[in-house]
Structures are given as C-alpha cells and as structure tokens.
Amino acid sequence: MDGGHVEHRPAGQDLPAVELRRSTRRRRSADANLEDGRVVVRLPAGLSDEQEAALINRLVRRVTGADRARQQGGDDALAARAHELADRYLDGVRAEVVTWSTRMRRRHGSCTPATRTVRVSARLTAAPGYVVDYVLVHELAHLQVPDHSEAFWRLVDRFPRAERARGYLEGFAAGQLEAAGRRAAESDPDD
Question: Which domains does the chain have, with CATH numbers?
Fold first, then answer.
C-alpha cells in the first residue's frame, strides 16, 4: 500500500477480524466495508489513539450492523414485519418506508409522520425479535399519535411484550453507556 500502513486485529468476542489501512494520502475521510469475513477500515494516518479508536469503533459497529440487517432479510423483511405488527396491534396503520439505519447511535428507532417513514437502529439486529417488534410498534404508533401522550402509550401497550422489551432496551442503553465509559477510561492518558 503506497504511503500507508496495514494492521490486522483478530476477531474479538462480539466483533469480526479487523484490518486497518492507514494512509498518509487521506486527510479527513474514513470508511469501512466487509471483505472476506473481516471489516476493512481505511483511515488517515496520524490520528491520535483516542480519535482512531473512536473512529474504528463507530465504523465497525456500522458495518457489522448493516451486515446483520442484510442477513435478516434487509429492509424488505423489516417492512414486512412492520406490516404484520400494524395489522395485529395498530389497526393496520402503514408506514410508506421502513428501513434499518446504521447511523443511529443513541436512539432505537425514529418515525417521521409527515413522510410516513420508520427507521430502526441496526444496532438492534442482535436483539431478540420481540425487542425489534416493540420498536416497530412504538414507531408505527407515532403515525397515529405523534407525541408520547397517554393515547400513544395505550396503542403501544397493545403489544403484549411491551414492558419486557422496554426493560431490555433500558439495559441495552445502560450497557452502551458503560462500554463507552470503559473505552474512555482505557484511553485516558492520566490513568
């Protein structure tokens, strides 16, 4: 590789093998994709250890979430599931577009009632099916009630595992915060 350095990192507990390609030609851009079962990350040379670790983590999560979404049937399968849930729990309300999103880092899903678009975080592809179903029901309910009023929660609570799914998502969010805190502590040069 001209003007760069390649590093291989073995697969971890929840992550595939990673190949880092640092380039002196790159100034700002970074990207990643899946190649032969490993995530190849291309990034500028000369980043601080903190910057590099954060960038690698974000790109690997994005690529692996997108890959799991594809393995689960992609957006088409997610939309079909949304339609089934809408028929069963929400009187057939329909979104025009239902997609996995690799860009959501903090939220589990989102709904834009004006365009009837529902997005679900690809981070949830590893979650139990009832959790993804709950997020779909929650977002679809926003097509009928755009706020989080009592009427909205009555709709969402038609889903029989709503309370259990909320508990899972609270634990999932807490785990994400804890992991972020560990990463920050590990990269703190004062420790």
Answer: 4-71 (no CATH), 74-182 (3.30.2010.10)
